[in-house]
Amino acid sequence: MKVAIAGAGSVGTAIAADLHAVGHHVLVFEQDPDLVERLRPSLDIEWVAADACEVSSLDAAGMADVDVVVAATGDDEDNLVISLLAKQEFAVPRVVARVNHPKNQWLFNESWGVDVSVSTPQLLTALVEEAVSVGSLVRLLRFEGGNAHLVEVTLADDSPAAGSSIADLGVPREATVVAVVRDDRLIVPRGDTRLAAGDEVLVLVTAEAEDRVQQLLVGH
User: Which of 9, 45, 15 minimizes the C-alpha distance to 27?
Assistant: First the structure.
């Protein structure tokens, strides 16, 4: 897989190193040539000393052949421009964008070419909620411009789903139970999988079906 990363800060270089380590072809755009020269010896990937907000720079680097773009700069405006160019000018199949300021989260959607947005503050909040919440629905990740979410519910003792099989829950068509974690053991759910209090249930759900899923698993 060919991955283009915009921004050679701590986030961008960490992503690049991890993807390179597992065998992906990685190129990193960084407009500061001095920074590129300092980083080049430490990471054997393709470096592009250019502005990723310029169409000509992206074209010269072969953006048309890229499978995934990661807009990981420290500037939300730049990340939006990079995402839009990647999607509209080069039809990149998958665009992931970093959200630096949570107040800008609403902008990072398919209108700007963003398939998945990642906000560190929101991720940390979700992880804290997931760790301490029982009997409530917690959003973990958002996909496809915000219309689909990965949510988690730790079933309380009084959950209406406790003791029921997944097939009997009546999960709406716009949602699917993707995993159940019980006693630190992953269960791949089937229709006859019976849920129990204390289970961590992971559900991929659209915004339209989220309230119904909460009713089924939480009860209110």
Answer: 45
**pTM higher than 0.85:** no
CA 43 to mean position of chain CA atoms: 25
Sign of the CA dihedral running 40, 43, 48, 50 = negative
Q: Which pLDDT belongs to residue 144?
A: 54
Q: Cα separation of 39 and 17, whole Å?
A: 11
In the chain, what are the domains? 2-118 (3.40.50.720), 133-217 (3.30.70.1450)
Q: Which helix (H) or strand (E) holds 214?
A: helix 210-217
The model's pLDDT over 25-41, given as tens digits with 9 standing for 90+, comes to 999 999 999 999 999 99
